[in-house]
Design a protein that fits this description.
This protein is an alpha/beta fold. About 55% of the residues lie in helices and about 15% in strands. α1 runs antiparallel to α3 and α2 runs antiparallel to α3 (about 35-60).
């Protein structure tokens, strides 16, 4: 019995060692370390030794206790070697999987699973090097989403994340083989398109068209149907840069240009960098300009069509410079709206405008004041108290103040905007919808906001005497305003013929350079005297 058991233990030890040969050999090939090679050689050596011991035991007629113990030790040795090799293999595999997962996470976006900025930079630089060797161009397209912030603010960040996931899947379907999509962060995505040149072929046009088609389809976010737009910017190697950083920078500049000009797509041009550098300079100077009170207001008259008298003035901000020039509001207001600086600017305009209105009224000038406010001004209820405080300080009736808002300003958070505007309107402040007809929700806003006035955008007034469509739009807007008991202002009046047409159509007020240019506050009284004298003689 002891004899048979001892031989069985040694044979089992041999089988265990044989079982360890394959993983040991695999480790030798993968790890290429002398220690694993030595272990593999030892396993082979042990198998040979175990076999010799087994043969020796088979030839013995009887095995004593000491040999039986040796057989047991050899069996345990086989178990030990087998476990060491198997556990080492599993541990190495787990370390490798963890390293792969870490590499995956380091190079991919957690939310969408797309390559991240780090991965993009590596891929783009490699693609540039290959394109340089092959003497072939490549393009980089960068885009972010219009009004993505309003989705987060209105529906919550989980819905915003869901939108990004759906978008990444849609964008992936637009790509051809070899094209590379990455999420830079936030709502910003980048596509690398090798072997293309937007000035010589239509590859980028087709890609832009495919992306637009995907964006035109509503996103279903928990029952909410949301349509999101984008304005991609494109930069091309080698025309617009020879390295990854430069190409991405220029694609970003082109994207900003597309947003400013409301273009479907924009290819980078060198002049855009100058604009971008100027914008950066202006943005960096804004906080100091606000602190130092560097702005001034000009006032443009609004003329009553029925009486030809001056109904009021619109306050327009200017930023004068030491050299006598002035930075147009169009250049710095948009930059201020990207931060909370616009709130400080709006409050300065309100305070300065109401103070000036009080001064005019003390001079016997009975006119009204119109002030533009932005979307960020409607983010907080403090605006209501601020306006009420300055009305009281300047002893002004609320009905002499009109706040001009755009459709964009209220669409981003309609519920809160409507509540704030309603409070102001209840106090007597008038609300005007500016640039009417240029947005997408005008009729809805007319029904949901506490409005007193519509301002027809100058793009419809310009040339209406020779453009039947513009004329029809202006007439329809005036009729709509009348039916909803709103006064209507026509902006951008350029000639006497337009004045006569607006009079026939029943427009309440007119505004434009032909009637009166924006002017400093100290020039307005004399202008009013001259205008009154001219009107009386005509």
């Amino acid at each position: 019995m002891v004899h048979s058991l001892s031989i069985l233990l040694v044979c089992l030890g041999i089988l265990l060692l044989v079982r360890a040969i394959v993983p040991a050999y695999s480790l030798c090939r993968r790890q290429r370390h002398w220690g694993w090679k030595a272990l593999f050689a030892l396993v082979i050596f042990f198998i040979i030794d175990y076999a010799l011991v087994a043969i020796y035991l088979l030839n013995l007629p009887q095995i004593d206790t000491s040999l039986a113990i040796v057989a047991g030790v050899l069996f345990c040795g086989g178990i030990f070697v087998n476990l060491v090799i198997l556990l080492s293999r599993d541990t190495i595999n787990r370390i490798k999987e963890a390293a792969q997962l870490y590499q995956q996470n380091a190079l991919h976006d957690d939310l969408t699973g797309l390559p991240n900025r780090k991965h993009l930079m590596q891929h783009l630089q490699q693609t540039i090097e290959q394109a340089n060797q092959d003497n072939r161009p490549l393009s980089v397209m960068m885009m972010d989403l219009n009004q993505f912030k309003s989705v987060n603010d209105t529906l919550g960040h989980p819905r915003g994340d869901e939108l990004l996931n759906q978008l990444s899947q849609r964008l992936s379907t637009c790509l051809k083989p070899g094209q590379f999509l990455a999420r830079m962060g936030g709502d910003e995505f980048t596509v690398v398109v090798p072997e293309t040149d937007p000035t010589q072929c239509d590859t980028m046009d087709k890609l832009c068209s495919a992306i637009r088609q995907q964006l035109e389809q509503p996103f279903d976010l928990g029952g909410y149907k949301v349509i999101i737009g984008a304005s991609p910017g494109i930069a091309t190697f080698p025309h617009h840069g020879s390295d990854a950083e430069t190409l991405l920078k220029h694609a970003d500049i082109a994207m900003c240009q597309a947003k400013r000009e409301k273009l479907l797509c924009c290819v980078y041009e060198p002049f855009m960098s100058q604009h971008s550098e100027r914008a950066l300079t202006i943005a960096s100077r804004l906080p100091q300009a606000i602190a130092n009170n560097e702005f001034e207001l000009h006032y443009q008259p609004l003329i009553c069509n029925l009486t030809q008298s001056v109904y009021g003035v619109e306050a327009l901000i200017r930023w004068p410079q030491e050299d006598g020039s002035s930075i147009p509001a169009a250049e710095f207001i948009g930059l201020a709206e990207q931060s909370h600086l616009i709130r400080d600017i709006t409050r300065w305009v309100l305070a300065a405008g109401m103070k000036q209105l009080n001064s005019w009224q003390q001079q016997g000038l009975n006119i009204n004041l119109q002030v533009n406010i932005s979307a960020r001004d409607l983010d907080e209820t403090a605006l209501v108290n601020y306006i009420q405080e300055h009305l009281q300080v300047n002893q002004l009736d609320a009905e002499h103040l009109t706040l001009e808002i755009t459709e964009h300003a209220v669409i981003s958070n309609r519920q809160r905007s409507s509540a704030i505007l309603t409070k102001l309107n209840d106090q007597g402040v008038k609300i005007s919808l500016d640039d009417f007809g240029t947005g997408h929700s005008s009729l809805t806003l007319l029904n949901s906001l506490p409005l007193n006035q519509l301002k027809i955008d100058h793009s419809f007034v310009t040339g209406m005497e020779s453009n039947e469509k513009n004329l029809a739009i202006v007439q329809s807007t005036i009729d709509l305003g009348k039916n909803m008991h709103l006064t209507v202002v026509a902006e951008g009046v350029e000639n006497q013929h337009q004045i006569e047409l607006l009079d026939l159509m029943g427009c309440n007020y007119m505004q434009g350079y032909f009637l009166g240019s924006p002017m400093p506050a100290d020039e307005l009284p004399q202008w009013l005297n001259d205008y009154s004298a001219t009107s009386a003689n005509s």
